[in-house]
Amino acid sequence: MSLKTETAGKRKSAFQRIPGVGPNMARHLEQLGYADIGDLKGESPERMYERDRLLHGGTLDRCVLYVYRLAVRFAENGGQDMPPEQMKWWNWKERGN
Question: Helix 23-31 vs helix 45-55: angle between axes, to the nearest 10 degrees?
Fold first, then answer.
């Protein structure tokens, strides 16, 4: 799968298939060195958040961590068998979802 796909003349990141990941969050993932959704399997959302926070000067909204939690879970099961509430990043505030 390619990192970018053509959509109405605009390049769209494959990461945007993950619920809650728009163009900005896709750029965050790319800046962290991920090339494809599969690269997120087995990653630590907390470590991803910490790396991203440092990359952006030490300040980053906590909601980015919640999106990373959802993204890793999505990558690990391809979005299959995830209850609808787990497809919303704001439901990943607490660990163990």
Answer: 90
Burial (0-12, 13-18, 19+ Cβ within 10 Å), 3: middle
pTM for the whole thing? 0.84
| Domain boundary assignment for the chain | 4-92
Q: Are 20 and 70 in contact (CB under 8 A)?
A: yes
H-run or E-run covering 5: strand 4-7
* pLDDT greater than 70 at residue 95: no
For residues 86 and 63, give the distance between their C-alpha atoms in angstroms, rounded to a whole number: 14
